[in-house]
Amino acid sequence: MSTSRRRSTSAGTRPPPQPSNITPPPQINTRRTAKSNLTQESIEALTNVVNSPESAEKFLIKKLLCHEDEPFTLTHLVSILFHITQISSATSLPVVTAIRAVAFLLKKHAVCEIADTVSQQISTDLIPHLVDNFIRAIAPQIAKVLSVSEFLDKTLEKVELERKITEREREEKNENAFIAAERLEEAADLCFVSLAECNKAITSLTPAMEQATVKFNLIQTPPTPSQPSPPPAPATFSSIVASYLPPPVDKALSRAALRARQITLNPPPGGHIFPKETLHADIVKKLREAISTIHNATTPAGAIRCVHVFPNGSITIEMDNENIATWIRTTSTRTALTNQLGQSIVLRDLSYPVILQYLPTYLQIEREGFLRAVEEENGIDTHSLDSIRWIKPLNRRSHDQRKAFTLLQVTDIIIANNIIKDGICIDTQKVYARKNKKEPIRCAKCQKFGHMARNCSSLEDTCGACGGKHRTSLCPSPQSTHCANCKTNQHASWSRSCPAFKESCDIFEEKNPENQMIYFPTPAIWTHAMAPTRPTKPDPPPPPQA
Question: Domain CCHC-type: where (predicted)?
Answer without folding.
Answer: 442-456
